[in-house]
Design a protein that fits this description.
The protein is of the alpha/beta class and 320 residues long. It is 49% helix and 12% strand.
Length: 320
């Protein structure tokens, strides 16, 4: 999730204070109330901070007070594993430095995540105090937030691109390092992607900011682009190489770009016009996707993988 920028104030105190007072309003992009800001400013507890290195990048890992040493150790491994999956997909970790603030909550499991660009890059994850190693291993939230770092900020109308890329790539990146099986990815996509189909009153991706269209409509856009790119290039280049091209051109979450610039840069990196063409078709019109036909062609219909399907080679290329 990527909200509007924070005001340039003591962000660490603000985030820690809101974690105690209940920071849902901030995460949803609503201005914090005066009392919450006052409480934040009064907070004197400081996070436990350490630095993780991923290739040439640094992650400043911050534990807000309340985690046990065992959970901190498991969370440290989780952060390194997630960062490695993202770095392998993009060829490097997306940014030289980022803060990762973990905020404790009652219970177990990885809860919500949000990424901020200002005044400097920070990801905040709400995390149950009793989270197990198995729950960390099964998590997709941190990879999702780290993928956001690889895409420039876009106008609110195109937030579907940001959330769609993060939703799609999180599964691909995790599958490629063995954190989730290919069968599971395709099964979960078949279940979830219909939520991205246009409904009554839909006016295209740029004009329909519903949850389903933002996350899963954006993910469908990415899947369609990946399939077409791999088909046109005889499997040489897909969405991965296109997004790597954006990163190589200086596009990352610390800078704002137009969606046209992102897609044209991505296309240029692979010598295609697929992303720009697809955006032209889907941005202003409600174009339903024949998902049933796509699953059949890829060989994923019915929950099993069919290597005799006409696009089975494309399906395999996506997750390897």
């Amino acid at each position: 999730m990527n909200p509007p920028p924070l005001a340039a104030l003591s962000r660490r105190a603000l985030l820690l204070g809101l974690s105690r007072a209940g920071g849902a309003a901030l995460m949803l992009g609503v201005s914090p109330s005066a009392w919450a800001l006052e409480r934040a400013a009064a907070a004197n507890a400081q996070p436990d901070i350490e630095t993780l290195r991923v290739l040439r990048s640094r992650i400043e890992l911050q534990f807000a007070p309340g985690f046990s040493p065992a959970v901190q150790a498991a969370a440290r491994t989780w952060a390194i594993t997630s960062a490695d999956a993202v770095a392998r997909y993009f060829g490097r970790f997306p940014v030289p430095k980022v803060e990762l603030l973990l905020v404790p909550e009652a219970g177990s499991g990885v809860r919500t995540g949000v990424t901020y660009a200002e005044p400097s890059l920070l990801m905040r994850i709400r995390l149950g105090r009793d989270t197990t190693e198995a729950q960390f291993l099964d998590d997709w939230v941190l990879v999702h937030e780290m993928v956001h770092l690889a895409i420039p900020r876009v106008p609110r109308a195109q937030n579907w691109l940001h959330e769609g890329v993060a939703t799609y790539v999180e599964s691909v990146a995790r599958a490629r390092v063995g954190l989730v099986s290919a069968e599971t990815v395709w099964r979960e996509w078949a279940k979830a992607m219909p939520q991205g189909q246009p409904q009554a009153g839909d006016a295209g991706l740029d004009h329909t900011p519903t949850w389903g269209r933002t996350y899963w409509g954006g993910a469908m856009f990415c899947l369609l682009a990946d399939v077409e790119l791999l088909k046109r290039s005889q499997l040489r280049t897909g969405l991965q190489q296109a997004l790597q091209g954006v990163l190589a051109a200086g596009g990352q979450y610390g800078v704002p770009w137009t969606v046209e610039r992102i897609l044209s840069t991505a296309d240029a990196a692979v010598g295609q016009t697929v992303l720009t063409e697809l955006y032209g078709r889907m941005k202003d019109s409600a174009e339903p996707v024949d998902l049933a036909g796509l699953w059949r062609d890829l060989g994923t219909a019915g929950g099993t993988l069919d290597d005799q399907a006409p696009l089975a080679h494309v399906r395999r290329a996506i997750l390897v």
